[in-house]
Structures are given as C-alpha cells and as structure tokens.
Amino acid sequence: MYMFNQTSNGVNKKIIVIILVVVGLLGLMWWGRVTQKPVGAATGEKSTLVAVEKFYDFGTISMKNGNVSKDFTVTNPGETDIFIPSLETSCMCTRAYIVELDGSTRGPFAMKSMGYVPPANEMIKAGESRTIRVVYDPNAHGPAGVGPIDRFAILTDRSGAQLELEIKAMVTP
User: Fold this and answer.
1) Who is most buried in 39, 117, 118, 159, counting CB within 10 A?
2) Domain shared by 66 and 27, yes or no
3) What is the pLDDT of residues 104-122, one digit of tens each?
C-alpha cells in the first residue's frame, strides 16, 4: 500500500508539472501575439507622406526579359520634416532603393525576414520629394513564379505611420 501512494504521488506531481509547463507556454504564446507588431503593419496609420502614384501595373512581363523597375515620387507636403527609419519590401523578389538627388542610389532595401536590411535613415524635409525605385525580379521564385504578383515597398516614419507603394504584374516564362 505504501508503494502505491508513492507511485500515485509521483504520477500526480508529473501531471501537475506538465500542466504548469503547458499553461506557461500557452501564456507566453498569447503574450507574444498581443505585444508583437506584424511585419509591415507598424501602427497601421497612414503616413503624411504622399505619392501621386502609389500603384503601378507592369502588365504582362516575361521571366526571360529579367528585372523590371518603377520609380515612385514621394513628397512631404507638411510643414515639418519627416524621418524615415525603415524602407522594406513585402517579398524577397522585390528590392527598393532611395534615389539621391545626384542620381546615385542607396539600398537595396528588402524583406526583413530574408536577412539584413539596412536602416533607411532618410529625412524628407517639408516640401521636399524623394524618388523610391522598386525593382522586381521575376526569376526570384524560379519556374513556379509564373502568374499574377502583387508586391509592396513600405516606408515607415518615426511615428510608425506607413506609405505603401504597390506593383503588380502577370509573370510569364
């Protein structure tokens, strides 16, 4: 009888420990979801930056013809300077560049989860504009990458507000 109680107590302790570990892990997972900002979501606010053209459709493009690019002009219409710490893209197949006034480029800025992405650290003064070049590589996904694509370059300002520049295309072999 004494052996039965020891075995029963040992099993009960193991069950309690397992339950506590599971509850602890579930609690950490819940806390992580509550505190985590999704990639590209930031605050969800719209940026005060404006772009006359925020969407461009390349139409049908062929993988054999290589990369395509589109330059977007982004303007700060406000009376205060806007600091852009982050420029990222929605997919590894897309890169973004900041085109300097002298025509040189800074970047590439890409998808954060695909490796190191340098900070943009770009100040757009009141009334000034910047050109953001978005480059799409139709070969990045290999032969399976044919069909419609929809990609974004996302500028995030210091407050977390965002401006999304969108490109679309129909990719053929």
Assistant:
1) 117
2) no
3) 999 999 998 877 889 999 9
